[in-house]
Amino acid sequence: MSQRKFMGLVGGATASGPGIALASQRSANAAAEPGYDDRQEFPLIIANIPATPRQKAWAVGVAVLLIVLAAVIAPFARIQLGQINGFVPVLQTALALAEFITAALLFAQFSIQPQRALLALASGYVFSGSFAFLQTLAFPNGYASAGVIGDALNSPAWLYVLWHATFPAAIFGYGFTKDHSAGGRPGKPATAAIIIVVGCIGAAVAGLTWIVNAKAEWLPNFYVNDVRHQTPLGNQVNLMLLLWNLTALTVLFARMRTILDLWLMVTLLAYLPNFLVAIIGSSVRFTIGWYAARGFVLVGSCMLLTVLLIETMFIYSRLASVIALQRRERANRLLSIDAVTGAIAHELRSPLGAISLNAATGLSHLRAAPLELEDLENILSDIEADSSRAADIISNIREMTIKTAQGGASANVEDVAELALRLLRHDLLANGVSVITEFQGNIPPVALGGTELQQVVLNLCKNALDAMSSVPADQRQLRMKTSLDGGATVRLSVEDSGTGITPRHQERIFDPFFTTKQGGMGLGLAISSNLVGRCGGKLRLVKSDVRGSVFELELPVSAPASVQ
């Protein structure tokens, strides 16, 4: 028997990997089968997508390329080039826009899946983009000969320090909170949190900018009279920034699990030549090393933005495909309903018309003077016969539709259960539920269609999520287990760690319109029980107490198709 763990990292649940991670021999075997496509499984935000070997290979390739470029440029770092006044404004304005767009995308991810780590990371990009643009305004011969703000000497250097110190600080916040509980619920609370954070960042940026520009004399000097001669403080600060970024890189490496972690590491790696050039090569402006270092920073700033856009495009395309399939299925169901209702109307028109005619004739006999009772018995007999014929028509059409839906239909319980978990992945993450599956493997198909079986499994899982909503997040666990009984019956059990169902409600749990949930209709379990009963299966509540409930689904194995 293979065992899998789908661990939701939201709500305090801990796991060996973020999002929903699959690890089983059966899934490995399935991946080796022709036609298997592991891209069918995807969460709604990339912050929870595990880093695959292919993505790691891409990241390593980019990192190696950056290292090789830095090594090639290093011997020429001290060579002085001409002063290009438009270089800093163009490069750092583009860089600031890239970081603001990245922050906006991360805030959007936070609004879908409110994790404090995403909020911290987005804040880092806002800080970085703000100080990058402000440093452009303070840079001499950028937007103005002496800079728009600051003293044109030390203010740009201090804004540079703030720029490259706040981003690694945000990485620390991200790295140490990304496995912790969510920061709120999607919707208005998440929007309010974003507004508050952006407001606080704006106040902090304004205060720090005022200090390094209006009160630059309070701070140690990087340059004295000439930007071509840096004080020893410059190398010391660059060394501290290098160590600060390396520490953040180490934290990410130790806790790296997702695509987001992976490319943040590449981003930090792209920033390192900026400090190495200043420490080892030269701090003088407008040298080859100076120009190249800022080019590396631009590449690093665009790195995560590119990944976010690509992954968002992939997720959007997959969701669009799923929505198209759902619409097609809905259209097919509507056509089936139209066909059934048309058949019912056509077949019932004749007996109902006869009943109406006989009833009118009987009434006319009763109202006649004197009473005409001779044919009344025959009229009533005809009404009874037509009523029976109408009932038979309804029964025959119902049996026909059931046979159409069920005849020859079969599905694999484990495949349907995995699909249901993928469909509920966002709900599992949002509620901080860890999912453990114990699938036997090599389970034969059961005599129930995939759509009906999926409806039943989804209903059981959603009920489990509702039952666990009032327990602590770190105790929410959903367990699914399959087994084969004697080769003729497949069992699927769904166990939750919720508060359980009271004994007085357990006997009525499958009754139509009976519910223990506020706002519920009480039809889910009743419909599920009916669907399972049609194919000769059973759905029952095995146990329920304060430690949770266990529902068990028994389904007969599908008979092999006959050879014509």
| Average predicted confidence as pLDDT | 79
Distance between the termini: 36 Å
Please trace the helix and strand order, writing H or E for each element. Answer: EHHHHHHEEHHHHHHEHEEHHEE
Number of helices: 15
Count of beta strands: 8
**What class do helices, strands and sheet pairing give?**
alpha+beta
Protein described:
This protein has 564 residues and is of the alpha+beta class. 59% of the residues lie in helices and 9% in strands. It is built from 15 helices and eight strands. The strands form two sheets. It has a six-stranded mixed sheet. α2 runs parallel beside α8 (259-281) and α3 runs antiparallel to α4.
Q: Which features characterize this protein?
A:
564 residues; alpha+beta; 6-stranded mixed beta sheet; two-stranded antiparallel ribbon; 8 strands; 59% helix
Walk me through the topology.
Blueprint: E1 2-6, H1 25-32, H2 53-73, H3 87-112, H4 116-138, H5 155-177, H6 188-214, E2 223-224, E3 226-230, H7 232-254, H8 259-281, H9 288-367, H10 376-406, H11 413-423, H12 425-430, E4 434-439, H13 450-467, E5 477-485, E6 489-496, H14 503-506, H15 524-534, E7 538-545, E8 548-556
Parallel strand pairs: 4-5
Antiparallel strand pairs: 1-4, 2-3, 5-6, 6-8, 7-8
Task: Summarize the model shown.
The chain is α+β, with helices and mostly antiparallel strands and 564 residues long.
